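Readers outside the structure-tokenisation community will struggle with the description of the input data as it stands. For illustration, here is how one protein appears when written out as sequence plus structure tokens:
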Amino acid sequence: MVKNKNEKKKNKKDSFIRSVISELKMVSWTSFKDIFKYTFATLLFCLVLSGYFALLNLALSFVKGLFV
């Protein structure tokens, strides 16, 4: 009886692993070119945004200096 339970567990694990592998084969993986393009776009966006906030901080500090 214990042997049957162990065999059932092993069969469930094997079935699960087989289904995971078959699902991974159906995934559409991103190419290196696309990954590089999206990474570059994200870094550029972050640089532009940080530059905008740096200039905004500088301008607001200047305005604050006029009144204080």
Q: What stands out?
A: Residues 2-67 form one domain. The first helix runs from residue 2 to 26.
